[in-house]
From TrEMBL:
This is Phosphatidate cytidylyltransferase. The gene is Cds2. It is found in: Membrane. It comes from Sula dactylatra (Masked booby). It is a multi-pass membrane protein. It is an enzyme of class 2 (transferase).
């Protein structure tokens, strides 16, 4: 057992093979974080066992977070984007702080400043791409924005190179290894946090429903897996999370799929949820008004013969989006939890309970969003693979920015193509 423990410690990076590593890492592991439960709840729940006290604390705070979620949805897309930005910054802060504690890097020259500088650079790149893509007309209308848009990638690369050179110049002889550890830690954190939050915003622009349903499915799965596990859990699921059980995992799956179907049915009937979020140049505001696509129009489907005798129906009317919601809720239930398992493994590797103690009973913001980031990537890939097609409005916007001779060339090419297909001729005859 002692040999296994020593071997595990070496794998975890808690012991070093040379004096340099010992001096860099130190001998003490980071201090585990703990939840600061409000005194009001402590007094109200003082007569309960720790198990039931934790259940009530988590339940009350979960309801509070769900209420806050509904409020920010009501406030609209702009507020949602700002909230995503704030969550991203907080998650980055929690992860990077763990790195500072683990590697005792508070005294490294410029490193805290460089970490936040790289966050600023990456955000400038991603949000600049988003502005250029979704606010194309506004960008072309304003001269400063047009120049920034034209040279956006070059500016972004120049900013990153500045940070890169600053890092090289900050290297200290006795701390090379430690500084490169933190350099890698910062970049992996940026990859996990900033990239995923960027994808969440892209999903939002496809329609609020692509933002709300996936996030709600992850929340539902988290709650229902906890409830089923709390009351019926007996069989451990994975060693990384000893409290997770097969009963909670399976119960959460069926509850989430059913929840996804019901939520999708309700939301598919409202244009404010189904229409793409677009920027109106006349009013300088976001609009979500459109003619619903086929995804959000009720259609009749034949029920398989095997199920007809069970349900007693031959056909069912539902929105095509509900079929896609099955894929989303299935991913949220079966693959999404692995984001949480990954986070659990990360925390165990550095012997911490939570990423922070921001939310009583839940830990840090990253503890609540570990599955959401994985879900955001899946939704973005799913939309690009199965949903999104060419956007006529964006093509027209780009067409109008071309030189007159280029526009004329495209016009003649398109006219010849339509004549060959017989479309233009039939229109002229009509």
């Amino acid at each position: 057992n002692l040999q296994e423990s020593e071997s595990e410690n070496k794998l975890d990076g808690e012991t070093a093979s040379d004096s340099e590593s010992r001096s860099e890492f130190g001998g003490s592991p980071p201090v585990p974080t703990s939840d600061d439960t409000p005194e009001v709840l402590n007094r109200a729940l003082s007569n309960l066992s720790s198990r039931w006290k934790n259940w009530w604390v988590r339940g009350i705070l979960t309801l509070a977070m769900i209420t806050f979620f509904f409020i920010i949805i009501y406030l609209g897309p702009m507020v949602l984007m700002m909230i995503v930005m704030c969550v991203q910054i907080k998650c980055f802060h929690e992860i990077i702080t763990i790195g500072y504690n683990v590697y005792h890097s508070y005294d490294l020259p410029w490193f805290r400043t460089l970490s936040w500088y790289f966050l600023l650079c990456v955000n400038y790149f991603f949000y600049g791409e988003t502005v250029t893509d979704y606010f194309f007309t506004l960008v072309q209308r304003e001269e400063p924005l047009r120049i920034l848009s034209k040279y956006h990638r070059f500016i972004s690369f120049a900013l990153y190179l500045t940070g890169f050179c600053m890092f090289v110049l900050s290297l200290v002889k006795k701390h090379y290894r430690l500084q490169f550890y933190m350099f890698g830690w910062t970049h992996v954190t940026l990859l996990i946090v900033v990239t995923q939050s960027h994808l969440i915003i892209h999903n939002l622009f496809e329609g609020m429903i692509w933002f709300i349903v996936p996030i709600s499915c992850v929340i539902c799965n988290d709650i229902m897996a906890y409830m089923f596990g709390f009351f019926f859990g007996r069989t451990p699921l994975i060693k990384l999370s000893p409290k997770k059980t097969w009963e909670g995992f399976i119960g959460g799956f069926f509850a989430t799929v059913l929840f996804g179907l019901l939520l999708s049915y309700v939301m598919s009937g409202y244009r404010c949820f189904t229409c793409p979020v677009e920027f109106n140049n006349d009013t300088n505001s976001f609009t979500v008004d459109c003619e619903p696509s086929e995804l959000f129009q009720l259609q009749e489907y034949n029920i398989p013969l095997v199920l007809q005798s069970v349900v007693g129906w031959k056909t069912v009317r539902m929105y095509p989006f509900q079929i896609h919601s099955i894929a989303l809720s299935t991913f949220a239930s079966l693959i999404g939890p692995f984001g949480g398992f990954f986070a659990s493994g990360f925390k165990r590797a550095f012997k911490i309970k939570d990423f922070a103690n921001t939310i009583p009973g839940h830990g840090g913001i990253m503890d609540r969003f570990d599955c959401q980031y994985l879900m955001a990537t899946f939704v973005n890939v799913y939309i690009a693979s199965f949903i999104r097609g060419p956007n006529p409005s964006k093509l027209i916007q780009q067409f109008l920015t071309l030189r007159p001779d280029q526009q004329l060339h495209i016009f003649n090419t398109l006219k010849a193509h339509l004549v060959d297909k017989g479309v233009l001729g039939s229109l002229e005859d009509a």
